[in-house]
Amino acid sequence: MKLTILGGGGFRVPLVYGALLQDHAEGRVTHVVLHDLDPARLSAVTRVLAEQAARVPDAPEVSATTDLDEALRGADFVFSAIRVGGLEGRANDERVALDQGVLGQETVGAGGIAYGLRTVPVAVDIARRVARLAPDAWVINFTNPAGLVTEAMSRHLGDRVIGICDSPVGLGRRIARVLGANPKEAWIDYVGLNHLGWVRGLRVAGRDELPRLLADPDLLGSFEEGKLFGVDWLRSLGAIPNEYLHYYYFNREAVRAYQQAEKTRGAFLHDQQARFYAEMRNPDAPAWKVWDQTRAEREATYMAENRETAGAGERDEDDLSGGYEKVALALMRAIARDERTTLILNVRNQRTLSVLDADAVIEVPCLVDANGAHPVTVDPLPDHATGLVCAVKAVEREVLAAADSGSRASAVKAFALHPLVDSVNVARRLVEGYTEVHPGLAYLR
Known about the structure:
Strand content: 15-25%
Largest sheet: 6 strands, parallel
Shape: globular
Radius of gyration: 21 Å
Oligomer: single chain
Strand order of the largest sheet: 3-2-1-4-5-6
Structural class: alpha/beta
Distance between the termini: 44 Å
């Protein structure tokens, strides 16, 4: 079975390959094709993968190419993890937004919109090529903003594109752990959009254990989200929000912390990964060791400004291992082998949330089998969550309209409608600022 990884020179590719190395069942991936536009990055990651596979019998073959069509032909699965504009683009997204006093995070607010405007045209081109060159392939999208990009690709691939994110998985795991439950045996009632969702229940053996957590202040304050949001706010919500909702609920504090930080997250990662890829140009450098040390630093500093604002302290050791590669492998395994499972995924709404249309991509538990991912029926969202979900989905639709038509007016509208952008004039200045620093937005007119 052939897996093509788009963005194959990306830093997190070894996580995916590491998960594949642990899979020895029939019907596993036997050939991994890495595609990237940068040959040097491809070479660096290929070295890391070679060291990973050195002592593993029957490790999946790895090849690399800068030719997209070659990479896609014959693929059974396509894993999309591209970053249009690179980390320099992410750092520019953050800085332009912060200069206007609004959030520049890569998936939330102004930064997420700018990233979407750059990425959607490229993702749509990929989707069209997949439909032509590998019509039977399943596309697993991790490219951010994951929900928006998945929806753009679904207009050409239908339900054969599925978005993944490790945030809901990590959240469910932490809740189950603090309740003394096995995460594999718990049903997580989670619903929303990518990076905009809430856990409303956690059922073990048919019993909802979340009320017990909400009723115990010591227990509730003992894990990441309890520290991040505060016990009182979580009890007021009656739910546990995805960590990215900290940018909404504590927006002023988050913006101030990012403005005062020595570097934005994008600038930090840009410099960190530049050092990694530079070191990989040394043929004697221990590729795996250098990569793993860089990964550990990356994970430990994740959302550091938010945790500092909330006084949440350092991340727990158990939360430093990532997880999106495990979601991707579980999804591929379920489809390829018809090993039915339940995963929280980004898929088309169908009739799951009545406040959104059938084609809107949402993040929700899905039953997965050989025919793909099927969203389960969920209870309606409470009003406060419905308002945010509908507002952000309206913004995503304006981004898609702008990317499709090249309309500058639609781009301004996308920024202006976002709950975290407080003025139409700010929205206009954001579009001006982003088109100045991003050549990829020259299509807006």
